[in-house]
Amino acid sequence: MSGKPRLTYLNGRGRMESIRWLLAAAGVEFEEVYLETKEQYEKLIKDGFLLYQQVPLVEIDGMKMVQTRAIMSYIAGKYNLYGKDLKERALIDMYVEGISDLMQMILMFPFSPPDAKEKNLESIKERATNRYFPVFEKVLKQHGQDFLVGNKFSWADVQLMEAILAVEEKVPDVLSGFPQLQVFKTKMSNMPTIKKFLQPGSPRKPPPDAHYVETVLKVFKK
Asked: pLDDT tens digit string along 60-108?
């Protein structure tokens, strides 16, 4: 074992992508194991690696961690991206939970039936522009700082940056009415660890395509 965190998931975004983002933003290198068959997935369950028979699975500090939220809380705490006290942590949690709701819609979008794609895309745009992005635009404007919580880079900033880019892939002009978020996106893009993660050849995964959807359905089919 190299000492690097070891991530087990499919070779695509899904629920692991936010974990990849957080590790990369913290400047942590990691290894990946990709599930390609149902048999590989069933072996993990049989061997007792998956507490709830679900991935993502992250092996870190001698633990085999499952559940995305628990994994990310641990990483954020370990690498000092989780605020300086309980109040800051509560704010980070609130922001992360909100962004996660938006990301869940994006996560499920590739699995939409063809006749529902347009409607689901409209829902993503509507939620982003009317419910979620206005919150962060207001927060950044009110306190006039570079980051969402305590003027210090945190898990919430990483999650928001991932969400902005994910929505922009589907709605390129989504930030047109959000000047603070435009500035935020530029600043985040230039942070060394995030800049590196956004370069070609990094562990960041491309948008899900038909092959990814097919693999997901094959590996996890009942």
From this structure: 999 999 999 999 999 999 999 999 999 999 999 999 999 999 999 999 9
Asked if 182 and 121 sit in the same domain, the reply is yes
146 domain residue, yes or no: yes
Closest CA to 125 of 98, 100, 140, 106: 106
d(CA 57, CA 60): 10
Q: Kindly state whether residues 185 and 202 are assigned to the same domain.
A: no
User: Which pTM was predicted?
Assistant: 0.94
Query: Residue 107: exposed, middle, or buried by beta-carbon count in 10 A (0-12, 13-18, 19+)?
Result: middle
Amino acid at 122: E
Q: What DSSP state is assigned to residue 173?
A: T
Pairing between strand 6-9 and 31-34?
parallel
Domain range for 121 is 86-191
